[in-house]
Amino acid sequence: MADIAYPHLFQPIRIGAVEIRNRLYMTAHGLGYAVPDPEMPGYSIPSDRHIAYYEERARGGIGLIIQESTVPHPSSQGSAFGYQTATVAAAFAEKNVPHFARVAEAVHRHGAKLFLQLWHGGHHADPRWHPGGPKRPLLSASDVPAVEAYAIPRAASIEEIRSIVDGFAQSARNAKAAGYDGIEIQGAHSALVEQFLSPFYNKRDDAYGGSAQKRLRFAFELLEAVRGAVGPSLAVGFRLNTDELLPGGLSDEDCADVARRLDETGLVDFLDLDIGTMHTAPLMIAGSYVPKLPAEDFIAAVRPAINRAVVLGCPGRMNDPADAERLVAEGKMDMVGAARAHIAEPEFARLAQAGRPEKIRPCIACNHCLEGILSGVACVINPATGREAAWGVQSFAAAVPRKRVVVIGAGPAGLEAARVAALRGHEVRLIDRRDHIGGAQSLMATLPGREVVDDVLRWYERELGDLGVALHLNEEARADAIAALQPDAVVIATGARFERTGVTGFIAAPIPGWDRPFVFTPEQILEAEAECGDRVIVLDEEGQSTAAGIAERLATGGAKVDIVTRWQLVAPRLQGSGQFAWVLTRLYAQGVTLRPNHYLKEIGDRRVTLFNIFSNEETEIGDVTAVVLVGAKRREDDLAAALRDKVAEIHLVGDAAAPRSLFEAGYEGHRAARLI
Ligand SMILES: Cc1cc2nc3c(=O)[nH]c(=O)nc-3n(C[C@H](O)[C@H](O)[C@H](O)COP(=O)(O)O)c2cc1C
Ligand code: SF4
């Protein structure tokens, strides 16, 4: 055992009758890959993308996959996160068994086990009368409104409860027929089961509400029905919250009590513990602003209540097998779950088992994947996620002929281009004028809460080293010098820089006063460490983390900072990822003043004039020591024209092609390298 990397992690374990090869499992995560079902409008079926995605991770050595939320009853047509969508597959329909069976076969081909998660959203379910049509009434335990939308449900009647229980049983029967190994009933994340369990949501005074035992009745009925449907050969369990963190909700002790009572039935084979309701979604899927493993202590507190069932735990932001090993070794959980670690790195388990943790591509908790839950999950640091059939681990056939490739710019696009070109066998030289890799991302990594970006840059550094990419830093790429290298192909990934003049999509003209000496771009703050003084105005047009990060950093250093933005919210483009909640919390904590619906009219002598974009009312702020313009970006692509007649094959990628985000940069770098 001593010679094995992570000896506790790679011990097999039994969940009920199901033998699992190691202690790593993928927690359920909605992928948005299901396709509309032509036979049942408004509902969906698993797709080829699902098969490729799950198969890649099964091949990558994971022990257990809990397949994303599926629909157990027609009254829960919507997605896990409450938005109306046709991208969650319907488990309740018997005719869908062959579609689900294809997923099970693909996973089993590689020795992993597969459970299906059944999620009734209750007041988050958002069913429609027809696709894209008016909403149907929402059901819940009571008429307590949902938190994330103006959705007011009505209490399910006894007949409706019976029908839903039947739906779960039928779904479980279908999963068994499709070859699945287990069923997870979603009892956390404010799903319908939790709406019954929790006194915060459940205000009933009939047999399903009132005492803790009565609130558990719905869960017991589901458990008996599902167990009855699948018998002893499949594992059956619940996903459970460990603390609702809601006034009047289930405390950690209450959650332990729920776990104990379910465990004592002897009908559950596993309990899958994590943290978070829809009220605390930014903790449930913790972004980079939250320390790693936020649920560890919550899970450890509930675990002693469980004596029979196997304890699965999702500590949150787990992307290092050493952490997983410790959690099992310390007995905090029997299996360690993660979603995003496996979205980013399909070979997490295999690389850990091989003792190569440094080769695991580390999830940076940016939550871009979460934004794809409706349209198709993708990963900013792994362009192959969701495209496994074409770009998967096994797709790197040697390129013929082998070419000499020069990549200019070691930002995210250039790094990925160099990596993929080298993986395909090309001879690759990567040039950057800076003394380090990362481009704009290395600057972003200096922002508070974004330090983790550096982990992925270090990963690229190691990978490029292993692949023999010739890295030339501190080197200005000049057209003649590049041409003299006689490359067969050049990838131009020289990125973009923020506009000095403050031009934005809102007013496509320079902001008067932009050229005053106390007006800076983000690069001047982050790269050149410009002196900002104690009264700073930050204009945010980008709506992501740049302005907020700079504001927080300067405010932490003692400056009084205002963020001015024409958007209704600071950092609006972090809303889909849930990151904005942490960003705003941190800004308020540092006393940053937020001025939404405002824009900069003019920068005067140590003063600025703002205006409200709706009322035109003006506000003057004096004694200003610095203005930071986070406006549009201008691409840096001069080399493309200079090389046009000198090199046969040129690929312009990422911000150098048109300024966008890290996501597009990595994708285009990858794509270009596949075309060479
Ligand atoms: C894109 C995405 C979709 C998710 N969908 C589900 C889901 O369908 N069911 C569920 O129980 N949890 C879902 N989750 C939550 C994860 O299972 C997990 O609890 C959470 O991401 C924290 O784990 P991590 O830090 O390892 O990602 C989802 C998470 C992500 C990122
Ligand atoms: S998109 Fe971001 S959070 Fe999601 S898996 Fe990739 S790196 Fe992690």
TrEMBL record:
<dbReference type="InterPro" id="IPR023753">
    <property type="entry name" value="FAD/NAD-binding_dom"/>
</dbReference>
<keyword id="KW-0411">Iron-sulfur</keyword>
<keyword id="KW-0408">Iron</keyword>
<feature type="domain" description="NADH:flavin oxidoreductase/NADH oxidase N-terminal">
    <location>
        <begin position="9"/>
        <end position="358"/>
    </location>
</feature>
<dbReference type="InterPro" id="IPR036188">
    <property type="entry name" value="FAD/NAD-bd_sf"/>
</dbReference>
<comment type="similarity">
    <text>In the N-terminal section; belongs to the NADH:flavin oxidoreductase/NADH oxidase family.</text>
</comment>
<dbReference type="Pfam" id="PF07992">
    <property type="entry name" value="Pyr_redox_2"/>
</dbReference>
<dbReference type="Pfam" id="PF00724">
    <property type="entry name" value="Oxidored_FMN"/>
</dbReference>
<keyword id="KW-0560">Oxidoreductase</keyword>
<dbReference type="GO" id="GO:0008168">
    <property type="term" value="F:methyltransferase activity"/>
</dbReference>
<dbReference type="GO" id="GO:0016491">
    <property type="term" value="F:oxidoreductase activity"/>
</dbReference>
<dbReference type="InterPro" id="IPR013785">
    <property type="entry name" value="Aldolase_TIM"/>
</dbReference>
<dbReference type="GO" id="GO:0051536">
    <property type="term" value="F:iron-sulfur cluster binding"/>
</dbReference>
<keyword id="KW-0489">Methyltransferase</keyword>
<keyword id="KW-0479">Metal-binding</keyword>
<dbReference type="GO" id="GO:0046872">
    <property type="term" value="F:metal ion binding"/>
</dbReference>
<dbReference type="GO" id="GO:0010181">
    <property type="term" value="F:FMN binding"/>
</dbReference>
<dbReference type="InterPro" id="IPR051793">
    <property type="entry name" value="NADH:flavin_oxidoreductase"/>
</dbReference>
<protein>
    <submittedName>
        <fullName>N-methylproline demethylase</fullName>
    </submittedName>
</protein>
<keyword id="KW-0808">Transferase</keyword>
<keyword id="KW-0285">Flavoprotein</keyword>
<keyword id="KW-0288">FMN</keyword>
<feature type="domain" description="FAD/NAD(P)-binding">
    <location>
        <begin position="404"/>
        <end position="639"/>
    </location>
</feature>
<dbReference type="GO" id="GO:0032259">
    <property type="term" value="P:methylation"/>
</dbReference>
<dbReference type="InterPro" id="IPR001155">
    <property type="entry name" value="OxRdtase_FMN_N"/>
</dbReference>
